[in-house]
Design goal:
Elements: E1 8-18, E2 21-27, E3 41-44, E4 47-54, E5 58-63, H1 65-69, E6 78-84, E7 103-113, E8 116-122, H2 125-128, E9 136-139, E10 142-150, E11 153-158, H3 160-165, E12 176-181, H4 183-196
Antiparallel strand pairs: 1-2, 1-6, 2-5, 3-4, 3-6, 4-5, 7-8, 7-12, 8-11, 9-10, 9-12, 10-11
Length: about 200
């Protein structure tokens, strides 16, 4: 479980393919790996991955073909958002995030407006019904508040801190982003479906 509060930006340094799967070595000198152990979970661009090898400033994870097929930004070197798994005593500064990506969206607009930035993301139609105005949406692992949603596009305000401390500083229109809907929406739908069975 995660909060969507990005702890640092790391870098996928190496990608080694194993058939359809791949192993990633991620440089994360600013993440503070002293309390991380083999088998721990770290969210990488919003995807919950298991640490399989650990060094003082980097860690390795395996990514299956199934995960690669439904996410973006994991199969090649580049900057990634990182967050260690939530501990029970931690503050919940964002919202409850599982690290289970629901779909991939596309940035349609990213432009500065005053001191902040306007982010618009086109979402898969199947996910749009789970997204609510003033609700939470996880974009590449970042807990964000939806300002507006029209058809299959969400509008979000990014504060300078978010731009400076996440990979949004490198983003541009046309980029694919990992999306995770609010956890509550999943369970509400399941309960409604159960009642109708």
């Amino acid at each position: 479980m995660f909060t969507g509060i990005i702890q640092t930006v790391g870098h996928i340094a190496d990608v080694v393919t194993h058939g359809d799967d791949c192993a990633l070595r991620i440089e994360a000198s600013d993440l503070g790996l002293q309390d991380v152990q083999l088998g721990d979970s770290i969210a990488v661009n919003g995807v919950c991955l298991t640490v399989t090898k650990l060094e003082s400033t980097s860690f390795e994870v395996m990514v299956s073909k199934v995960t690669l097929d439904v996410t973006s930004g994991l199969g090649q070197p580049g900057a990634v958002n990182l967050e260690k798994a939530l501990r029970l005593a931690d503050r919940l500064g964002g919202h409850l995030v599982t690290g289970h990506v629901d779909g991939v969206g596309t940035i349609s607009v990213l432009e500065q407006v005053g001191e902040c930035w306007l982010l618009k993301v086109r979402t898969p139609h199947a996910l749009s019904k789970y997204i609510a105005q003033k609700g939470s949406l996880c974009v590449n692992g970042i807990s964000l508040t939806v300002n507006a949603i029209t058809q299959d596009e969400v509008s979000i305000n990014l504060i300078p801190h978010t731009m400076q401390h996440t990979i949004m500083q490198y983003a541009k229109p046309g980029d694919a982003v990992n999306l995770e809907i609010d956890l509550i929406a999943r369970y509400v739908e399941r309960m409604q479906a159960w009642e109708q069975e």
